[in-house]
Design brief:
4 domains; Rossmann fold; Sec1-like; Sec1-like_sf; transport; Sec1 family domain containing 2; Sec1-like_dom2; globular
Amino acid sequence: MSTAEDFTQLPRAAWDEAVLTKVNEAVVFMDDACAESLHWCGGAARLFEAGARDVKRFSSFEAGGEKEPKAVFVVSTLLRGRAVDVIRDIVSLSRFRCCVVLTAVAHPVHLLAAGGASAESERRVVFEQFEEKLREWMGGSDGAAEVAYAPVVFAPVSRQQLLLAPAYAHLFPLLARDLEAINARRPEKRRLAGLADVDAHALPAQLQLDVKALAAALNSLLEASGAREESFAVGPMSRVIAGELAAHPQAKSRRKTAHNKASLIFVDRTMDLTGAVGHHGDNLVEKILTVLEPLPGHVTDVQVDMLELTSVQRTPHSQSPVAPGCLAQTQSPAAQSLWETMLTSKHKEGVMEVQRALVETASKEKLPIKMSMGRVTPEQLSSYVRLFRGCGGALESHGGLLQLGLATAQTLGHPGLPRWDACLAFERLLLQALGDTTFLGVLRQLLPLMKPRGGEDASGSRSREDGCGPDELILLLVYLYSLADEAQPPHGGGGGGEEEQLEMLERELIGALTLVVTREAELSPLLQKLTGCATPEELTTERAHSAVGEMFGTLRGLSHTRDHLKQLRSVYTASDGVHQVSRPHPGDNPLVLLFLVGGVTPSELRLIRDTASTHKPGTQVLVLSTRLLRPTDVPELLFPPRGRTPPPAGI
C-alpha cells in the first residue's frame, strides 16, 4: 500500500533519476519553476554533489565558459516560444559539444502543441526535431544532443502532508468572464449555457495545453507510486482536469496493472474563496508568507534577513550584503520537524515551538541563554538567535533552525503585521452584518472605508501600518462578494429595484476605490498587476477607473460559483435497496489525494488533517495543490493583469 509519505518522496526520486544522472561535468541552466521544485527537494547542493560545474539562471544573458563543453537545460515549459529562444541564445554564445534538454512537459503534449500529430504516437518526433536544432546551434553534426521528459513538477513542501506544483501556480478555476470569452470565440457553434458545460476542447489553446500537461504530470506521479486512482471532482475546472487524467493513454494501461488504490479528489478553489482571502487563519506560516518578501523567482518561499547572525552593521536605505535565508530546510531533520509543526499548528503553538527549539539548541551548545516568562516577543527570539553569532560550528549545525527562528521573529516584529488584525476585525464585522441585513446593506458599509491613506478625512488610526489601503479594500470586496449568497434576502423579494440600487452603489464604490488607488504614493505589486502601471506617475484616473470597473465585473460572478452544489443537499433517496448499485466513495480507499486547483492555505492543511483524523482515523490524506496561498494571492489570480502582451507562440 502506498502511503502519503511514499508520495512525498517521489519528487526527490524524480530528480535523482531524470536530472542528477545527466549533470556530471555540466553547467546547468534552470528556469524558476524547476528551481523552486529542486529547492524543496534538497537544493542546488544536490546538483554539485552529482558533479555539476555550475548552476545558472535560464536567461539569454547567461552562457557557458570557455572550458565548459557540456550543458544541461531543465525547463518546466513546452519547448517553444521563449524557452526555445533562450536555449538558442545560450548555446549560440557558448562552445558546448554536448547539450541535454530536460522538459517537465511530456512528449504527447508537445505533439498536441505542434498540431497535426497523434497524441498517442510512439515516436519522439518533437524531441528528435529539437535535437537536430541543438546540433545546428552547436555548429555542426558532431555535437551530442539529447532531449527527454523529466517529471520534476512537484515540490514536497511538507514531507507529511503537502505537494505543490510551482509550474502551475498561475492555474485558477474558470470564472464567469472565462465563459463569456469562450462563447465569444465560437459564434458558429452552440453557445455554452454555463461553466458546467465547458470541456477541455472548449478551453483556450494555452489553457488546454496546461491542463493536459498537468494531467500527464499527475499520471507520472501515480505511475511512480504504483497507484490506481478513483477520481472525483468538485467544480468545472476540476472536472476538466479529472477527465483529462482519466483519458490519458498511459493512465488507462497503468490502472489495469497497478495494485495500490487511492482516491483522487479535485476541488476548485472558487468553491471557497472566503477561506483563502480571509485573515481568520490562525497560522504562523500564513503570516510569514504574507509579510516577508518572497525569494526572487519563487512562489512559496520567502527571504529571511540573516544579518543578525553576522557582525556586519545594518545601514539604512541599502540592501543587506548577506544572502537571505529561507523556509525550505531539507538538510536538517530538526529544522524539518520544526517546519512541519509551524505549517500545521495554530499561531501560538507554532511560536511556542520555535521558542522551545531555540532554547533547547542553545542549551545543548552551552550558550549563556536567559529565560524570561510571559508572552514570546520578537526581541526575545532575536536574542536567542544572536547567541549563535560567532560560533562557527553551531551556526553550521543549526543553520536551518536559526533561519526559521529569524523568520518568526521578523514576522512578529514586522510593521505590516497589524494590518492582518485590522483586516480580521473588518471581516468579522462584515460577517456578522451579513446575518442581519441584505448584501446591499453590508456592501454600503464599505463605502466609508474607501478614503485615501493620509488624507485630511482619514482618521489617525488609519495609518500606513495598520490602516486599510487599496490592497486590503480589494481583499474585503472579494471576501464580501464571495459570501453574497449568505446575506439576508431583500424585503419583498428584491427585484429590479434592488438590482438598480446595487448598480448605483457599485458605481459609487468604483469611483471611491479609483480615488484611493490614484492617491497612493507607490503602487503595490497587486496594484501594478491590476493597472498595468509600475509607478503612480504612469497611472491615470481613466486607467485606474477602467481597471477597477473590470474588477467589479469579476466580483459580481463570485456569488454564483457554488450554485451547482445546491443539488448535493439531497443526493440520497431511501428505497428498498432493489436495483441499487454501490457507487465508489472517496473514503473507501486507505489513501486520499486531495488536489486543490488554485491553491491551499496553511490553515486548511490543519483543518484537513484534523477532519480526517476525526472522521476517518485509518485514512491517510495527502494534499496536492498549485500553490500555498497568502490572502493577497487571491486577487492576483482572480483579476487578470493588464497591459501585458501574451508570450510568443515561438518556433
